[in-house]
Write a structure and sequence with these properties.
The chain has helices at 45-63, 79-98, 108-116, 123-134, 144-158, 173-179, and strands spanning 4-11, 16-25, 28-38, 67-71, 103-106, 169-170. By secondary structure, it is α/β, with parallel strands linked by helices.
Length: 185
């Protein structure tokens, strides 16, 4: 196993996509970046999806992450919101698969549990823990960026147990199709 690796974490959304990247050297975590892609300025849903794909590819091409961790859509009452969120996640995943970056999905509760020890933690609690873990001097005012960073940190904490926990992990289109036969028509 490589002694140094880069993990890109993405919190997908169609109004804001949060992302963060960490470098792992042994057991040391280092913040590379955290930011957000503001999408609500674009009227077209299709254009928003295109921007998510382009930004994800740009991050991959610039920083060459070894792995991509992404938050899985949660089940809510608004079906339209869930569909849009699923599309946003799918587009970010497609960018990773296009560049052959292995992808792992995490449920929101799993991310919160990994970072704070509490699966019901607030965004503010997650951000505060990330600030301590990564020695971040100033947190962003919006917490979408820290949500994306939290997904990367969650992946770091769960990496050694990846195959033991049954998380979905995709390293290619072939593995995605093999793990999701019901999604192929």
């Amino acid at each position: 196993m490589k002694s140094e690796r880069i993990i890109l974490g993405i919190d997908p959304g169609t109004t804001v996509m949060g992302f963060g990247m960490i470098k792992v050297t042994g057991k040391k975590l280092e913040l590379i970046l955290m930011d957000e892609l503001i999408l609500n300025k674009f009227d077209s849903h299709s254009l928003r999806l295109k921007k998510i794909f382009e930004r994800t590819l740009q991050l991959i091409d610039e920083f060459h992450p070894d792995e991509l961790a992404i938050e899985a859509p949660f089940f809510g009452k608004n079906v339209q919101s869930m569909l849009k969120l699923g599309r946003a996640q799918g587009v970010a995943m497609a960018a990773g698969l296009y560049r052959e970056v292995p992808i792992t999905e995490y449920l929101p509760k799993k991310v919160k549990m990994a970072v704070t020890g509490n699966g019901n933690a607030s965004k503010e609690q997650v951000a505060a823990m990330l600030k301590r873990l990564l020695n971040i001097s100033v947190l962003p005012t919006k917490l979408d960026a820290t949500d994306g960073l939290a997904v990367a940190v969650c992946h770091y904490f769960n990496f050694d147990q990846k195959n033991k926990t049954g998380k979905k992990s995709y390293g290619s289109w072939k593995s995605f199709i093999a793990n999701n036969p019901d999604r192929i028509k």
